[in-house]
């Protein structure tokens, strides 16, 4: 689980996962980067922050990435072809300054890349759904641009002008 590095807590997600793990509703291993959250987890290991190499290693090992609604973590997990459950931080819970993460998560969900959880009580349902569901393969715009550029260069080098 990844909660980002901004100076906001995401205690309600940590508490929900902790309770699901304690109740045996989640039996898989959970490791969480909790950032500035203050909730004390009792059922799985956590760390505040992590170096990029170690972060990438954890993502590589994960079957499912549960995260906040930041584009960085969502895109990183999708590029590694991981199933993603994203829960947007909400202003009403003092988790962010506004609700832009709701918009971000909704866009990725509507495009078929991730599972969205708007209400924390829906998390266990989302975990069950993501295990059974197939998602679209993600290609970043940079990858698309580079591939198109490469194809254009090959065409030009073969004398096939545009």
UniProtKB/TrEMBL annotation:
Example GO molecular function: hexosyltransferase activity
Pfam families membership: Glyco_tran_28_C
InterPro entries xrefs: Cps14G-like (IPR048097), Glyco_trans_28_C (IPR007235)
UniProt-recorded name of the protein: Glycosyl transferase family 28 C-terminal domain-containing protein
Species per Swiss-Prot/TrEMBL record: Lactobacillus kalixensis DSM 16043
UniProt domain Glycosyl transferase family 28 C-terminal: residue ranges: 4-142
Origin: domain of life: Bacteria
SUPFAM superfamilies: UDP-Glycosyltransferase/glycogen phosphorylase
């Amino acid at each position: 689980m990844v909660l980002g590095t901004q100076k906001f807590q995401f205690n309600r997600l940590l508490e929900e996962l902790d309770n699901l793990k304690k109740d045996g509703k989640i039996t898989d291993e959970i490791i969480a980067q909790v950032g500035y959250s203050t909730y004390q987890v009792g059922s799985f290991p956590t760390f505040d922050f992590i170096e990029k190499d170690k972060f990438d290693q954890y993502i590589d090992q994960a079957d499912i990435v549960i995260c906040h609604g930041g584009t960085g973590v969502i895109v990183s997990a999708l590029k590694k072809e991981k199933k993603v459950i994203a829960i947007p931080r909400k202003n009403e819970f003092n988790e962010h300054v506004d609700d832009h993460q709701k918009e971000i998560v909704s866009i990725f969900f509507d495009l078929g890349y991730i599972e969205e959880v708007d209400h924390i009580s829906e998390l266990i349902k989302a975990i069950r759904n993501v295990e059974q569901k197939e998602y679209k393969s993600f290609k970043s715009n940079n990858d698309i641009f580079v591939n198109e550029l490469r194809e254009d260069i090959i065409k030009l080098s073969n004398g096939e002008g545009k």
